[in-house]
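Translate sequence into structure tokens.
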Amino acid sequence: MSSQVTMNASALSAREIEVLKNLVQGRTYSATARRMQISPHTVDTYLRRIRLKTGVNNRAQLLLLALSVAGSDIDA
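Result follows.
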């Protein structure tokens, strides 16, 4: 993952970061949606916006971004 992707991560909203943290926890779109009280379609929309803002191209890069954003703030 390039440094440009990491730098763009600072442009993410609080809700987009919350979606990434749920991704790190291994939650599905449906589980994330229930936890955040939104629809699964909205979860998908957040992830598409995250990809656009950060330049992430695939799921592996998305997970690496999620891990870097979540950092030590990962809770069960």
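Note: The two ends are 26 Å apart (CA to CA).
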